[in-house]
Design goal:
The complex is a heterotrimer of chains A (about 280), B (about 260) and C (about 120).
Chain A: E1 2-9, E2 18-25, E3 29-35, H1 41-48, E4 56-61, E5 64-65, H2 71-74, E6 77-80, H3 91-98, H4 107-116, H5 130-143, E7 148-152, H6 160-172, E8 179-183, H7 187-190, E9 196-201, E10 204-210, H8 211-217, E11 218-223, E12 233-237, E13 240-246, H9 258-280
Parallel strand pairs in A: 3-8, 3-9, 6-7, 7-8
Antiparallel strand pairs in A: 1-2, 1-4, 4-5, 9-10, 11-13, 12-13
Chain B: H1 12-51, H2 62-82, H3 93-97, H4 103-141, H5 155-177, H6 182-212, H7 218-255
Helix pairs in contact in B: 1-2, 1-4, 2-4, 2-5, 4-5, 5-6, 5-7
Chain C: H1 9-22, H2 35-42, H3 46-58, E1 62-65, E2 69-72, H4 76-103, H5 107-123
Antiparallel strand pairs in C: 1-2
Classes of the chains: A alpha/beta (about 280), B mainly alpha (about 260), C mainly alpha (about 120).
C-alpha cells in the first residue's frame, strides 16, 4: 500500500529530519505511528500523502509516487490532519461537493455517522467546536472508503466521551481492505485500536512490528526488585519494576504495555529489536 | 518507478466538480462582492439624478459604464487572487492538494471560473444593469425612444476583456506564488515592472538618440509604417504568448506546491 | 505476593464468552454477538476480537455459519468446563497454595471456610 525507500528530508540545511528512512505498510492493518515530539511524525505523513516532496528517495502509494498527486491515487487516500479549518458551509454541502471525488463514497454511512456523533447538521462547519469538526471529518474520512487513511493525532482535543466514540467508530468499520496510519503521542487512547507499532526516531523507523508478534516475543511483567531474570528494559514503579522480558514460548501472553514498550524502544531499541531478529535468521 | 510517458489525465467530470466546489466555497464572498459593486454603481448613477434631476445627460447608463468596466477588471483580479486561498494555510492546503483530481484539472478549473465564467457573468450583469437603469430613466423622464444599452461587443469592450485575460493570467500566478496579500503583491510586481520598463525605455531611448544623432532617420520611419499594419496583430500574438507563459508558470507552481 | 499480569484483551474476551457459557446464559446454538459488536463494545481493533472468536472456534466451543455469524456449539459447556478446570488447576491453585502457606492457613481451615461459604450460598 505504502512503500518508502531511502527517504531523506530536511527543513533546514545541514539538519536531516529523515535520513534513509524505509517503511512498508500493508492493507488490513491499523498502524500506530509513535515518536517523540519533533521526531517528524506529521512530516512523514505529509510525505506519504504527497504534501511534501522527499529530498531524495521515493515514497509511493499503491505503486505510484505520491508527489505526482495522481487523481486515482488521491481518491484512495484521505488525510486527517491534527489542525484544520472547515469552510463556512453546512455539513451536507461539504459532503455534496467532496463526496463525488471518491468513487466508493458511502452516503448512508455518512448520514448515519453524523446522527450518531451528534454533529449539528444545520450549523456551518466553521462554527462547530473543535471536537465536532474533528468528528465530522473522521466520519467523512471513513465514508470515502479510501484505502489509505492517514490520521494525525486524531484523539487530540477530543473530550473523554468523544475519544470513546472515536474508538467505537474505528472498531465498527471494516478495515480489512484499508490501511490506517494513526500518529499519536497519546498512547493510552489508542492502545487497543492499533495492530502494528511503528516507531520513528532519529530520522529512521527504529521499530515496526505487529502487535501479535510483539505479544509472542515479549512479556510485560511487574517484577520484584531482586528478580534476577534477564530484563530487556525496566522502569521503577511502586513495589517493584515494570519490565519487558523475553517471552518463553510456553508461557502465557501478557497484555502489551505500549507506554513501557515505547520508552524501551527509544532507549534500548537494539536490545528489543534483537528479540525479533533472532527467529528470522 | 513511474513511466515517463504517462498520459496527462483530464476528466471533464472532475473539472466540473471542481468548478462547483469553487462556487460553493466562495459563494458568500462572491455574492457580497457582486452586491457591493452593483450597489456602488447604482448609487453613483443615482447621486447625480437626485442632486441635479434636470441634467438629463447624467442619467444614462453610459455615465457609469466606465466605472462598471473598471469594477469588472478590479473585481475579477481580486477574485482571482483569492481563488487559491486554501493553498497558503497549513490548515487548509490538504483539502485542495489531496482532492482527488489532477493538478491540470484544478488549475484549469480555477482559470476557467475566474476568467471565462467570471467575464460572462460580469458582462451579463452589466447588460442587465443597463436595461434596469435605462428603464428606470425612461419611466422617470419618458425618453422611451432613447435606450442606450451596454453593448458587450463594442471594440473597446472587446479589448478590455482581452486585457483582463492578460492581467488575469499574472494574478492567477500571483495567487499561487504569494503566500499572503496576493492581490497587492501581484499589483506591486506589475507596477514595478512597468516602472522598470519605463526607465529602461527612457534610458535606452536616450542612448539610442545619442547614437543616432548623426544617422539619418528614414530607415526607422519605414519600419514604423510597416509595423503599424502588423502592430495590433503582433500585440495580440505577444499577449497570447505571455498569457500561455504565465499560465504555464502558474501550473508548475501549483504542481510543485508543498505544505509548510 | 501476587504478581499476576494484566491479561491481553483477546483473553479477556475469551473469558467473558466462557463465563457466559458456564453460567448457562449462552446455550447451544445460541447466536452470539458479532465480531463487530464485540469490537465496538470493547473499543478494540476488530482483528483482536476476531482472534478470540478464532481461538474458541478452534476449541469447538463456537461454530461459524458463513454469512450469518457465530453460534455456541452443542458440547460447548463440557469443553469450557474442561478448559477452565485445567486452567484453574494450572494457574490459580499454585497461587492459592502459596498464599495459604505464606499466611498460615491450614487445609482444615480452608475446608471449614469452603463449607460455610457453600451453605450460605445454598441458603439464599
Amino acid at each position: 500500500m505504502v512503500s518508502i525507500t531511502d527517504l531523506t528530508f530536511a527543513f533546514k540545511k545541514n539538519h536531516l529530519l529523515f535520513n534513509g528512512l524505509n517503511l512498508e505498510l500493508q492493507a488490513g492493518s491499523i498502524y500506530g505511528l509513535f515518536g517523540l515530539n519533533g521526531a517528524g511524525k506529521t512530516t512523514l505523513l505529509n510525505h506519504i500523502s504527497g504534501l511534501l516532496f522527499p529530498k531524495s528517495g521515493t515514497c509511493e502509494i499503491l505503486g505510484k509516487s505520491s508527489r505526482k498527486r495522481d487523481p486515482e491515487t488521491l481518491s484512495e487516500l484521505y488525510v486527517l490532519p491534527e489542525q484544520f479549518d472547515l469552510p463556512p458551509i453546512p455539513a451536507h454541502s461539504y459532503v455534496n461537493i467532496h463526496a463525488p471525488f471518491y468513487p466508493r463514497f458511502d452516503e448512508e454511512y455518512m448520514k448515519h455517522s453524523l446522527m450518531e456523533l451528534l454533529v449539528e447538521g444545520d450549523k456551518n462547519l466553521n462554527e462547530l467546536s473543535y471536537g465536532q469538526r474533528k468528528k465530522f471529518l473522521i466520519a467523512f474520512a471513513l465514508a470515502t472508503n479510501a484505502r489509505l487513511l492517514l490520521m494525525d493525532e486524531p484523539t487530540n482535543g477530543l473530550d473523554i466521551p468523544s475519544k470513546s466514540q472515536f474508538r467505537k467508530i474505528m472498531a465498527a468499520s471494516d478495515h480489512s481492505k484499508r490501511c490506517v496510519v494513526i500518529s499519536t503521542h497519546q498512547v493510552r487512547d489508542l492502545e487497543a485500536m492499533i495492530d502494528h507499532l511503528t516507531v520513528l526516531n532519529d530520522g529512521k523507523i527504529i521499530f515496526h512490528q505487529g502487535i501479535d508478534n510483539i505479544a509472542k516475543k515479549l512479556s510485560f511483567e511487574k517484577i520484584a526488585e531482586d528478580d534476577n531474570r534477564f530484563v530487556l528494559y525496566s522502569e521503577e514503579i511502586f513495589g517493584g519494576k515494570a519490565a519487558i522480558i523475553p517471552k518463553k514460548t510456553d508461557s502465557n501472553e501478557t497484555q502489551i504495555d505500549l507506554e513501557l514498550l515505547f520508552n524501551g524502544i527509544i532507549q534500548k531499541g537494539d536490545v528489543i529489536n534483537q528479540q525479533f531478529v533472532r527467529e528470522a535468521v | 518507478m513511474n513511466k515517463p510517458g504517462q498520459s496527462i489525465s483530464f476528466s471533464m467530470l472532475r473539472f466540473q466538480l471542481i468548478i462547483k466546489r469553487f462556487f460553493v466555497l466562495n459563494q458568500k464572498n462572491w455574492l457580497i462582492g457582486f452586491l457591493g459593486a452593483t450597489g456602488l454603481l447604482l448609487s453613483f448613477w443615482l447621486l447625480p439624478v437626485i442632486f441635479s434631476g434636470s441634467a438629463s445627460a447624467q442619467i444614462h447608463f453610459q455615465s457609469i459604464e466606465g466605472m462598471a468596466l473598471f469594477f469588472y477588471t478590479a473585481g475579477g483580479l481580486a477574485l482571482t487572487s483569492r481563488i487559491f486561498f486554501e493553498l497558503h494555510s497549513s490548515n487548509n492546503a490538504f483539502q485542495l492538494l489531496t482532492l482527488p483530481a489532477s493538478t491540470l484539472e484544478k488549475f484549469s478549473a480555477a482559470w476557467f471560473v475566474s476568467s471565462v465564467v467570471y467575464t460572462a457573468a460580469a458582462i451579463t450583469a452589466i447588460y442587465l444593469l443597463s436595461i434596469i437603469i435605462e428603464t428606470i430613466s425612461a419611466i422617470r423622464f419618458g425618453f422611451w425612444g432613447n435606450f442606450q444599452l451596454f453593448n458587450p461587443f463594442e471594440n473597446d469592450n472587446l479589448q478590455r476583456y482581452a486585457s483582463y485575460f492578460f492581467y488575469h493570467s499574472i494574478f492567477l500566478l500571483g495567487a499561487i506564488y504569494f503566500k499572503k496579500n496576493n492581490f497587492l503583491k501581484t499589483l506591486l510586481v506589475i507596477i514595478t515592472f512597468f516602472i522598470g520598463l519605463f526607465f529602461t525605455i527612457a534610458i535606452g531611448g536616450l542612448v539610442l538618440a545619442f547614437m543616432m544623432v548623426t544617422d539619418d532617420f528614414s530607415f526607422e520611419y519605414q519600419l514604423l509604417e510597416t509595423a503599424a499594419i502588423w502592430q495590433s496583430l503582433l500585440t495580440y500574438l505577444i499577449g497570447i504568448f505571455l498569457i500561455a507563459l504565465f499560465l504555464l508558470f502558474g501550473f508548475l507552481q501549483l504542481k510543485n506546491k508543498q505544505v509548510a | 505476593m501476587d504478581f499476576s499480569e494484566k491479561q491481553p484483551i483477546y483473553l479477556q474476551i475469551i473469558d467473558y464468552f466462557c463465563s457466559q457459557i458456564l453460567e448457562n446464559k449462552w446455550k447451544p446454538d445460541y447466536r452470539i454477538p458479532s465480531v463487530r459488536e464485540i469490537a465496538v463494545k470493547m473499543e478494540v481493533n476488530p482483528n483482536t476480537a476476531m482472534r478470540a472468536f478464532h481461538y474458541l472456534q478452534e476449541k469447538d466451543i463456537l461454530y461459524n455459519q458463513r454469512g450469518i455469524g457465530y453460534f455456541v456449539s452443542g458440547n460447548a459447556y463440557q469443553k469450557v468446563l474442561a478448559l477452565k478446570r485445567a486452567e484453574f488447576i494450572r494457574e490459580k491453585l499454585p497461587v492459592l497454595f502459596r498464599d495459604m502457606s505464606l499466611l498460615g492457613i491450614s487445609f482444615d481451615e480452608l475446608r471449614f471456610l469452603y463449607d460455610k461459604n457453600n451453605s450460605h450460598s445454598s441458603g439464599l
